[in-house]
Amino acid sequence: MLEEQEGALPDHAMICEGDLSKLRRKHVEQLLQDERGELSALDRRVLNDLSSDVSTVATVDPEVVQPNTFGVRAADAVAAFGGSWTFIILFASVLVIWMAINVIGLFKQPFDPYPFILLNLVLSCVAAMQAPIIMMSQKRQEEKDRLRSENDYMINLRAELEIRQLHEKIDHQMAQQWQRLAELQQIQIDLLESEAGKK
């Protein structure tokens, strides 16, 4: 890539760390564009983090999704309680007790006789209040999950890019080692031939 920009370079040419980092970034960016087409904002953020050697890991702070107000905490508590076995058992117990009191007639006159109209009204009110609260909590949880999945994507992309760079470095080292071994082998052959020529 450097030779494409600068032309042929001598073997003893050196490059500073900053320019090497810029070249690596351009190379990785080109690889991603070839592989995916257009780069997304997340891809660019990972490239910036990678070139500036900044950690890509970000924790998903609930405060980022929505401030922790009393209403938010109450909605989360209601949603957590409404989706638990404790709520189901407690609610079933209240229904059984309500019906038993009105069917058996523990009082002189039942306060909600058989078709249980008042019970239906109470159940409708509970459902009408509980449903939007649970939906608000789920919406916040969905936003947190989206942020976590974006974070996971960025971490995985960075890991993939770093692994590619490591592979390139290892391949480069192997090529240099093979070249050195070939030179050493040639020197040994020359020495053996010169020794054989002396005999």
UniProtKB/TrEMBL annotation:
UniProt keyword Ribosomal protein present: no
Pfam families noted in UniProt: DUF1003
Residue intervals passing through the bilayer: 78-101, 113-136
Keyword entries, A-Z: Coiled coil, Membrane, Transmembrane, Transmembrane helix
Record has Transferase as a keyword: no
Classification via InterPro entries: DUF1003
Signal sequence bounds: none
Top-level taxon in the UniProt lineage: Bacteria
Coiled-coil ranges from the UniProt annotation: 156-195
Protein name as catalogued: Cyclic nucleotide-binding protein
Species, as recorded: Rhizobium oryziradicis
